[in-house]
Amino acid sequence: xxxxxxxxxxWQAPSPAAPTPAGGRAPINPFLRADPSQRARRLARALxxxxxxxxxxxxxxxLREGTLRQLFRExxxxxxxxxxxxxxxxxxxxxxxxxxxxxDILAGGRRLF
Length: 113
Description:
By secondary structure, this protein is mostly helical. The chain is 65% helix and 0% strand. It has one domain.
């Protein structure tokens, strides 16, 4: 007779524990840990994408009226603070990832920021 473990499908079997770094927490995506600039770029794009997702009408109005910077002033400030908190001031100021994300995603490719 087969053991219970042998009869358990692979998708139900517990996966072996992933190795964790010295800090005790496994990285969400280990590939991002290796390249801080790539991580910063992706985070900037995610934060700005959230602005568009949460405020689509406000974005359309801002694009139409030319008031995007004014309408999103507070949201951009909060998102940038989150960005700096997560990537560090040095990394945030080293490359224009956040500004690029604002122009590419929020401004729809226009250079407004």
